[in-house]
Write a structure and sequence with these properties.
Among the domains are: 5-131, no CATH class; 284-422, Heat Shock Protein 90, CATH 3.30.565.10. It is 53% helix and 17% strand. It has helices at 5-57, 121-169, 193-225, 227-241, 248-275, 289-300, 325-341, 368-373, 392-403, and strands at 69-75, 95-98, 103-110, 113-120, 285-288, 308-315, 320-323, 345-352, 356-361, 407-412, 416-422. It has a 5-stranded mixed beta sheet with strand order 6-8-9-11-10. The chain has a 4-stranded antiparallel beta sheet with strand order 1-4-3-2. It is elongated. The two termini are 35 Å apart.
Length: 424
């Protein structure tokens, strides 16, 4: 888990330590810079006050003189050559001034004269640097040590969560390994809320496993149990319809029974395909799309027996697919059934292209709101027409999504509807 929780915690602690270190370094140097200037000015003012008090007691008192601080006085009314360190300062006003030789000068005017003080700024800078660097180093060292120890402790705390995530990520979606999270197999480090979560996932995996077993059993049994009675109905209808002495009305009824049984088998096939797991491919074969289309056309022609509707198939390009032909039959049959149901006069056209099937009719059409809901289960735009349950287009959409055949609808009220299946 390259981007797992331990890595994120590690990155968070590193960022925290880096940000804290930068804040300390910048803050300490900013504070030292401000304090250095204030300290320097304060010390020079104190030194000047001390000298003037000494001068009042003894005008011959010694001036401040050393490696860091140097002084020079010019009595009131007197003129004298300025020492080299103070050259040019006689033209400046009272206060602090930065000199070119890296020193800072302070001029203090009193009735008794003018006092010049010169302070070695480089010495103060060096002293300030050492006074800042040592605390910074200790502070940074403390931050990184504390961050490392805290990270280690946090990692131990999240390790059970990481272990649980790894175990769950290795589960087979088709058959979750519930035994991996059995209470007796949990590590000792897994406790508290993590153990509760592991127990909940274990129970969920057991339930999912049982559900998958039941679902597979239902799919297997339904495939047999639902087909058996339909086969009996179709065989019986075939035997009866072969009798040449049957009245036309009875023959038409038997034909409707055959058609309904075949449609029911197709719907069962579609439901069983949708009930299977996505990675379990149904039985496929190479077939000509035209054959499936003509078979469905023959099935829906009785729906147009009393309507002035012309049904036409146009094959622009021969098209072959490798897929379950019954799936395509269910999709085309539902689209044709809807076209026949909602078209009372005009034309229904099935066009076979290089990569698609287009079913176009001149029926009642749909408005925008109806078109947006057309693929919803049990939705029927024409509520006055009792035929149909409103699940045909939903089945078509789901089958198309399952096999990568997107289905789209275009419709204009009063002009008709166009349904397109694209074979991607």
């Amino acid at each position: 888990m390259a981007q797992g929780l331990p890595r994120k915690i590690k990155v968070a602690f590193i960022l925290q330590a880096v940000i804290a270190s930068l804040a300390i370094v910048v803050g300490v140097f900013a504070i030292n810079l401000t304090l250095k200037q204030r300290f320097l000015e304060h010390r020079m003012q104190v030194q000047a006050d001390f000298y003037w008090r000494s001068w009042e007691r003894d005008p011959a008192a010694a001036l401040p003189m050393g490696m860091v601080l140097k002084g020079h006085i010019v009595p009131a009314g007197a003129t004298a050559a300025m020492p080299q360190d103070f050259a040019g300062l006689e033209k400046l006003v009272e206060g602090f001034h930065a000199l070119q030789n890296g020193r800072t000068a302070y001029i203090d005017d009193r009735p008794a004269g003018r006092l010049y003080l010169s302070y070695d700024t480089a010495f103060v800078d060096e002293l300030t640097l050492w006074m800042a660097a040592v605390p910074i180093l200790f502070a940074l060292l403390a931050i990184w040590i504390v961050s490392w120890l805290t990270y280690r402790a946090s990692r131990r705390l999240v390790e059970p969560v990481s272990w649980l995530a790894r175990e769950v990520s290795e589960w087979d979606p088709q058959q979750p390994d519930a035994g991996a999270l059995a209470p007796e197999r949990l590590p000792r480090a897994v406790e508290g809320e993590v153990r509760q979560l592991a127990d909940a996932l274990h129970s969920l995996a057991v339930r999912i496993g049982a559900f998958l077993t039941r679902e597979r059993a239902f799919t297997r049994d339904a495939s047999h149990e639902l087909r058996t009675p339909l086969t009996v109905v179709r065989v019986a209808a075939d035997l009866l319809i072969a009798d040449p002495d049957l009245p036309p009305r009875t023959q038409r009824s038997l034909q409707r029974i055959q058609t309904a049984a075949r449609d029911m088998e197709a719907v069962i096939d579609a439901f069983l395909v949708l009930a299977r797991e996505a990675d379990v491919a149904p039985q496929s074969e190479d077939f000509n799309v035209r054959d499936v289309v003509y078979e469905e056309v023959a099935s829906v022609r009785p729906l147009l027996a009393r309507k002035k509707v012309h049904l036409e198939v146009i094959e622009e390009t021969p098209l072959r697919l490798h897929a379950p032909p019954r799936v395509l039959g269910v999709m085309v049959g539902n689209l044709l059934g809807n076209a026949c149901q909602f078209t009372d006069e005009g034309k229904i056209e099935i066009r076979i292209g290089a990569d698609r099937i287009v079913v176009r009719d001149t029926g009642i059409g749909m408005n925008r709101d109806e078109l947006e809901k057309a693929f919803e289960p049990f939705y029927r735009a024409d509520t006055a027409n009792p035929i149909g349950k409103g699940i045909g287009l939903s089945i078509v959409r789901r089958l198309g999504e399952r096999f990568g055949w997107p289905v789209s609808l275009e419709s204009v009220p009063g002009e008709g509807t166009t349904a397109t299946i694209v074979f991607a």
